[in-house]
Amino acid sequence: MTNKPPDVQVLVVDDQQLIREGIASMLDVQEGVSVVGTAKNGQDAAEQAASFKPDIILMDIHMPVMDGISATESIRRQLPDVQVVMLTTFDDESYIIRSLQAGACGYLLKDIPVRDLAQAVKLAHAGVYQLAPEIAGKLVGNLHSAGKPINNKSADIDLTEREFEVLNLVATGLTNREIAEQLFVSEGTVKNHVSNILNRLGLRDRMQAALFAIENNLVSRLDK
Predict the structure, then answer these.
(1) What CATH number corresponds to the domain at position 102?
(2) Is residue 105 part of a domain?
(3) Which of 104, 131, 158 is the last residue in one of the domains?
(4) Residue 102 CA: distances (Å) to CA of 99, 126, 170, 177
(5) Residue 64: how many CB atoms within 10 A of its CB?
(6) Is residue 96 part of a domain?
(7) Do 125 and 155 belong together in one domain?
(8) What string of pLDDT tens digits covers the 224 residues of the chain?
(9) Are the C-beta atoms of residues 189 and 195 closer than 8 Å to each other?
C-alpha cells in the first residue's frame, strides 16, 4: 500500500481580510494542501513563517508595515527552505523582476482558479517555479518590443543553439517534461541540457537561469 504524501503546508499573506480568508478557506479544502495560517502584512508573515515554517507562502505585494517583496527577501534569507509564491493583481514587469530577485519561486495572478492555485502550490513545493502564462508572455514580449541589445556578458556565453532553445523554454516556465515534449527529445536529454546550462552560466537553479535569460534578453536570441 502506497503511503499518501504529507500535505503541502501553506501560509496565506494578504492585507485584505476578505481576500486572505477567502483564499485560505478555498485552498484548505483542496487535496494535498493544508493552510497553516494567514498573515495581514509582510512583518506578520515573517513572524508566522518563523513559527510555523510552512512549505509555501502565498504572498501579496502591496501591504502596510512591510510589503511582500521586502518580506520575501527577509524570509528567504532567514528560512531558505521556505518557498514564496507571489499572488497578486499586479502584472507590472518591475514587480515581477524584483519579486524573483528577492527569492520568490513564482508569480501568479489572483484571478487563477483555485484548483490551478493548489496545483501551482504543489509544483512549487516540488521545486518547479511558477509563472502565470500571461506573466511569462509579458516579460518576453516586453523584451522583444524594447529591442534591448544583448550585453557583452551574454554575447560571450558559450551555449549551443539547442541549449539556448532550452534556456528560452525554461524562462517561460516550462517543466523538463513539457520542454521534452515540445522539442521531441527525452526528459533525460532536457535534464542534461539544463545541467550544462547551469554549469556554464555559474547558476544555482532554474529560477536563476530564467532570471538570467530574461535580464540578458537571451529569450529573444533564437529569433535573430
Answers:
(1) 3.40.50.2300
(2) yes
(3) 131
(4) 5, 20, 19, 27
(5) 10
(6) yes
(7) no
(8) 457 778 999 999 999 999 999 999 999 999 999 999 999 999 999 999 999 999 999 999 999 999 999 999 999 999 999 999 999 999 887 788 889 888 898 999 999 999 999 999 998 898 887 888 777 766 665 555 544 444 434 446 778 889 988 998 887 777 888 889 989 999 899 999 999 998 888 887 777 787 788 777 676 544 43
(9) no
Distance between CA atoms of residues 166 and 219, nearest Å: 10
Are 117 and 108 in contact by the 8 Å Cβ rule? The answer is yes
Residues in the chain: 224
CA 14 to centroid of chain Cα atoms: 18
78 contacts 46 by C-beta, under 8 angstroms: yes
